[in-house]
Amino acid sequence: xxxxxxxxxxxxxxxxxxxxxxxxxxxxxxxxxxxxxxxxxxxxxxxxxxxxxxxxxxxxxxxxxxxxxxxxxxxxxxxxxxxxxxxxxxxxxxx
Length: 95
Prior knowledge:
Blueprint: E1 18-20, E2 39-41, E3 44-45, H1 48-56, E4 64-65, E5 70-72, E6 77-80, H2 85-92
Parallel strand pairs: 1-2, 3-4
Antiparallel strand pairs: 5-6
């Protein structure tokens, strides 16, 4: 999520929606949505502060922190560099 984060405004009860295997660049920005989907987990956070903030809201127990390196953002290429260990972690994460 380029220069953004998870920021749900509406989440329907019993939707079963999943927010998983995403790279967020900022800490989550919840706005008093009390009922979330069936799973929010296995995401990559920019730092441990953002990760711990999400976990304090009882989401993302298996997510990790460490940011990501993108190839050439100044050329609008936001592909995650294949040398990043986090990319390999995200690809191996099971659903």
